[in-house]
Amino acid sequence: xxxxxxxxxxxxxxxxxxxxxxxxxxxxxxxxxxxxxxxxxxxxxxxxxxxxxxxxxxxxxxxxxxxxxxxxxxxxxxxxxxxxxxxxxxxxxxxxxxxxxxxxxxxxxxxxx
Amino acid sequence: xxxxxxxxxxxxxxxxxxxxxxxxxxxxxxxxxxxxxxxxxxxxxxxxxxxxxxxxxxxxxxxxxxxxxxxxxxxxxxxxxxxxxxxxxxxxxxxxxxxxxxxxxxxxxxxx
Lengths: 113, 112
Known about the structure:
A: mainly beta; 6-stranded mixed beta sheet; 4-stranded antiparallel beta sheet; B: mainly beta; 5-stranded antiparallel beta sheet
């Protein structure tokens, strides 16, 4: 079946603008994760959704970052008042319940000018 | 926060050789580990999962888990230039956790 999809693939924005990134997980996957990867760096956990449970927001770097998920489907990551240090690839991953394997989408490359 | 440590490399091996990638972890209770391959400019791709002590083979790849030593490795036999990528090791962020802690990755270059 289809893998994790993300949109847009690339986003260029001006400092101070808000951006919204979208993730469609693999159908049937109950868990969804957002990560950030700066150029040449490792993966940085942002937020985790599991079914209808309250999300784990412990990785969000500031209150400018927020995310929502509708049931067990689409998730959106919103960054308000973007800063240049927000420039990175934002990766979404999903996981089938009772399994620990995470499958990544292609990512959204965000550039803040 | 549980830790997963990898040598960042770069690790260079000649084509046809065995590449050995290593990872250590801090949480003795962790039961499962994963190896991801990440080509430059691409997202991580899951290539191996290992859930029990010992070896697991899949084609040219062998994952090894040694819980007593808290050590995970990935062997790539008959390395090909197409194996050149960054390899990420990941393990649970605590026993029973569904969050993964990722190592920073080891960059592998296979020289033709």
